[in-house]
Amino acid sequence: MADLMKAFVMEGIGKTAFMDKPVPEPGPNDAIVKTTRALVCTSDVHTLKGAIGDRSNLTLGHEAVGVVAKLGSEVRGFKEGDRVAVNAITPCFQCQNCQRGYTSQCDTMLGGWKFANTKDGNFAEYFHVNDASANLTSIPGSISDDIAVYACDMLSTGFMGAEHANIPLGGTVVIFAQGPVGLMATVGARLLGAGLVIGVDGVAARLSLSRHFGADVTIDFTQQDPLEEILKLTGGVGVDSAIECLGSQATFESCVKATRPGGTISVAGYFGHGDSVEIPRVEWGVGMSDKVIRTGLCPGGNVRMSRLLGLIERGRVDPSPLTTHRFAFDDVDKALHLMETKEDGILKPLVVFK
After folding, report:
1. Helix (H) or strand (E) holding 48
2. Do 168 and 286 reside in the same domain of the chain?
3. CA 199 vs CA 68, 76, 189, 320, 348: distances in Å
4. Tell me: the pLDDT tens digits for 324-347?
5. DSSP letter string over 233-256?
6. pLDDT, tens digit, for every residue of 118-133?
7. Are residues 15 and 142 in the same domain?
8. What does pTM read for this prediction?
9. Are 67 and 201 found together in one domain?
């Protein structure tokens, strides 16, 4: 009889529960990781509400680190007992889309997103990792699990937003929404050489963190019109790049409107509602403004993850201020509820496993 483990599952749309599941077994190319730390993401809230359709007893969670418990016979470069981080996106690195350079779209659109989508996630005592040689990443000894877990999604997604924004060296960039992804996009923009970094949000604590993470100017959209302020800051021409980090019609439109002709709108947000997203026609130059809209999904793989962990190790970024709450695994349902309501000043809850 298979050993059992505790898992936190989506029973159906809007319904969660703890349940016992068999500890997974690895295939030849796979690994099983014993979870030590995880993070709860607003994406988990979207999933629970049905943004990607109904799921039955699917284990939630996609940001976790842990210790290798079992390895498949063909996995190289790791051993049982290694501390490892696993990106939220776990491509095969072999299909056509992966070979074309779009690993997050592994096999099909969004196909690299497997955890809590097409397979059990990692809100469980153990989780399965496909294609482990490419998707496990060793955690340097100087980095705690509490910090390393941020490389799994927040750093990779936020930095992707900045990378896709095509920010000229010394150029101007605005980041709409200063949640965890937006704050990491702010760091990324600064690291990529932006000359003026503008952070937009409506929560004072987040705007304070925005300045901490590298924003030169912050705009509280509850007090000022962001577009008016952006035009003032840029001498009336608009920004070179705008990064959308919320996944809402309003922030997307603001990005298009704030960007100068030939600029780039980089979308890192998760649009979890509605059937379409509208582009403001006039500010889009009626389709002829040379503005680029670039989308993407959190890049994975151990090369990417090693670079992110290297940035942490060398002090280029310290994501620890993002952790506003800590929960035992037994209380992950409470953490998920807070991420939905955004009560108590929550930014990112860290889940601690025994």
Report:
1. helix 42-48
2. yes
3. 39, 43, 11, 19, 19
4. 999 999 999 999 999 999 999 999
5. HTTTS-EEEEEE-S--HHHHHHHH
6. 999 999 999 999 999 9
7. yes
8. 0.96
9. no
